[in-house]
Specification:
The complex is a heterodimer of chains A (156) and B (109). By secondary structure, chain A is of the alpha+beta class. Chain A has three helices and seven strands, in the order E-H-H-E-E-E-E-E-E-H. The longest helix of chain A is centred in the last third of the chain and has 23 residues. In chain B, helix 1 runs antiparallel to helix 4. The chains are: A alpha+beta (156), B mainly alpha (109).
Chain lengths: 156, 109
Amino acid sequence: MTKPKFVYVTYIATTRERVWKALTDSEMTKEYWWRRANVSDWKVGSAWKHQDYDDPRLVDIVGQVVESNPPHRLVVTWARPVDAGNAAKTSRVTYQIEPYADVVRLTVMHEELEPDSDMLRGITSGWPAVLSSLKTFLETGKPMSTMTQRRDRPPE
Amino acid sequence: MPRHVDKVFKALADPSRRELLDRLHANNGQTLGELCEGLHMTRQAVTKHLVLLEAATLVVTVWRGREKLHYLNPVPISEIYERWIGKFERHRLRALHQLKKGLEENSYD
């Protein structure tokens, strides 16, 4: 068993079904995830892509669906398109959606990341923002203002 | 919701707890034993601090076999950040932070 590099948790006052939909439905991801779409049929073995909602040619992440058990657990591989098929540069993300008292506990585990890579640096700033935005979106119906548009580069 | 924010601030208000978060930031996924190494705190004190950090969800745990691993969970800090920092301030703040860092590092040359 490998040790996950990062484990992120957020508690959301909603249902497991809505969390699953919010992670897998482009119409929802675009609202809180820097206007990105997560595209797949979410069947085991199928490909999935993380791409720009308005311009699908802009693909950030590609991978395969490893496990899919709606609305409980989703496991996908995760790589930049140029690194697709390169095992050393392919990591793995597990989404676990569990009931917790009267809310839902969403756990995101990111493992098998290449040490000291841009991907590792990117996800450590990305996941906390995405998950807090998802929580706000599901609880209030409104996403965080910083998360509704394509993530632009900071001015140098 | 407000109660959770209170827990986050209370958990962050203690230097020993911030030190534990720093240690997880440097090396994520540690057992209690690993976290205690080289710390001037008893194992009981570390355990007590971890309970408060877990209640605030600043620390989350995962079992790997028989080992309980502790992870830094910055999601609540991200919520605080998003609450008070606007979309356009973000880049300016980053630039200011870089400037401060650069100037402070250079002053030791």
